[in-house]
Amino acid sequence: MTIRKILKLLSVVSIFNVLTVASARAVCPVCAVAVGAGLAISESLGISDAVSGTWFGALLMSVTLWTVDWLAKKDYGKRVVNTILSLIFYYGTTLWWMFETNKIGRINNHLNLFGFNFDKLLFGLIIGSIMLVVGDRIYITLKERNGGKAHFPFEKVAIPFGLVLLSSGIIFLLVG
After folding, report:
1. Phi-psi sector, 108: left (phi>0), alpha (psi -120 to 50), beta
2. Are 71 and 21 in contact (CB under 8 A)?
3. CA-based nearest residue to 93, from 41, 24, 15, 17
4. Could you point out which of 71, 75, 107, 142 has its C-alpha 20 to 30 Å from the C-alpha of 45?
5. Count of CB atoms within 10 A of residue 60's CB?
6. Residue 123 to residue 23: CA distance in whole angstroms
7. In this structure, how many other beta carbons lie within 10 angstroms of the beta carbon of residue 8?
8. Which of 151, 162, 150, 156 is nearest to 136 (CA)?
9. Are 134 and 57 in contact, with CB atoms under 8 Å apart?
10. Which one is predicted more confidently, 69 or 8?
11. How far apart are alpha carbons 89 and 17 in whole angstroms?
12. Nearest Cα residue to 79 out of 144, 87, 116, 92
């Protein structure tokens, strides 16, 4: 079996697992759909790879957190190990695909930040991943401070989505 067939099989299994999750605690399915919609819209409008990468990174992190929670709910393995393996799998296969299809590393598709050249798509991917986690942590903190209740409906979606939207807007204004 070739590596390409193995990756396709793992992708199908992963997608099936993600789609069959009944509930998730870290990032809900609605958030993942919202992030995916943001990625599709930004790409179709021809927006910078840095902005598209922000949404792509948020989507990857959302699916990673979703998988980790699903595995925890099934009482499968230790959470730390599941998190590391999920991060390696989702980000590893995605970055491999990006390198293989020349999405990352293209000439004239870099940002010069602090004297270093960063690939726009990779930069956005990192920022989007971080913003989704920060948004999730903000939501958890606010909910705990409010007696375990959300302040408004879909707060769990609005805060991470809002942070990713804000960061992609800032990147759009700075990078184009």
Report:
1. left
2. no
3. 15
4. 107
5. 21
6. 31
7. 11
8. 156
9. no
10. 69
11. 14
12. 87
Of 64, 80, 134, 71, the closest CA to residue 56 belongs to: 64
Tokens coding 13: 């299994």
Tell me the average pLDDT of the chain. Answer: 79
CA distances from 40 to 44, 46, 86, 153 (A): 6, 10, 23, 25
Residue-level length of the chain: 176
Token duo for residue 57: 């990174």
pTM of the predicted model as reported, rounded to 2 decimal places: 0.73
Task: Please give the Cα distance from 160 to 7 (Å, whole number).
Answer: 29
The region of weakest confidence among 109-123, 126-140, 154-168 is 109-123
Q: Bigger pLDDT: 54 or 23?
A: 54
